[in-house]
Specification:
Layout: E1 2-7, H1 13-22, E2 26-32, H2 36-45, E3 50-52, H3 55-60, E4 66-69, H4 76-85, E5 89-93, H5 100-113, E6 117-120, H6 127-138, E7 144-154, H7 163-179, E8 185-191, E9 201-207, E10 213-219, E11 221-233, E12 237-241, E13 249-257, E14 270-277, H8 286-298, H9 308-338, E15 347-350, E16 355-358
Parallel strand pairs: 1-2, 1-4, 2-3, 4-5, 5-6, 7-10
Antiparallel strand pairs: 7-11, 8-9, 9-10, 11-12, 12-13, 13-14, 15-16
Helix pairs in contact: 4-5, 5-9, 6-7, 7-9
Length: 363
Amino acid sequence: MIKIALCGFGYWGPNLLRNFLFNSRFQVVAIAERRPEAHEAIRRLAPTVMLYEEAADAIRSSSVDAVAIATPVGSHYSLTRMALEAKKHVLVEKPLCASLDEAIEIVEIAERNNVTLMVDHTFLFHPAVQKIAQLTRSGELGTVSYYDGLRVNLGLFQPDVNVLWDLAPHDLSIIDHLFDEEPFHVQANGYCHLNPRLPDIAYVTLHFPSRMVAHLNLSWMSPIKVRRIAVGGSNKMVVWDDLDRDEPIRIYDSGISVLAEEDRPVIIPGYRVGDVHAPRLPQSEALAGVVEHFGAVIDGRSFSIMDGRKGLRIMRILDASQRSLDASLAGIDAHYRTAQPPSRPAINIHNGNGFLRVDDADR
């Protein structure tokens, strides 16, 4: 049995605790959480575990074999490094670290100490993603040309990361899992509505060697919550709506065909509209799959699909996206600082005797 410590009991920590308690391969022996108001809930759910205020104390405990880290992103590097140097296996919440340099160092430490490092990219174990992976790898979709992701909602505004680092890792991990290639060109832009240092809207476009393009629409400013991706192939297209409980996956037997250049006077595609199929998906919790996979990798029964190297690939894309986003925001900010205020058009005002024209300079 693997004795594990959980660091952090905020938004994601309770979900991790529940799944570790239900998995027979693990024994939760310690939980670290600074907030006193969370201690009562911890005692109620896991009355026999050791409760620490500082994560470092839980990590250093001699009774701990593995650590799950669900703390703010800014602490991922220090806590993960501490656990790996103590030769403890680590499952860390996404993203792996707050910077690419930190992530590179973390992966090197894990490999040098021969311990398991996994990033909790939970969607890789979602039945919908597993179904899309089956469709792409079997060739049923044909040659994939695009991935379109819409991941928007009103909040939750994160205090230490922007919307790119909060939401993009979900789609980036799915793309990496489905297609196993890194983009050669990244474009990103966005806007800061509330915090001038943390963009709350971002648009990311990724170009891949296979000629596939991926576009991500990420926002904390949407009045509605949407979680939808579309993958388009030359044979079929698939749409996953994570908020549709009845038919989350729809496969469209639709596409276009274009005659060879020598056989056409103009580029007019032929359209093929076929049936729509909504396959039934198994009812399983993705996080339960993450926990089971973590145990199997530690025991040497499985190769990891979300190890440190995979996490590092996601970090490289995030880093490139952030640099592009920074350049875009700097250009926008420079424009606003130097541009003249827009002039208002002249208006006509009736003063009782007739209409007077009032120009901008008169107002």
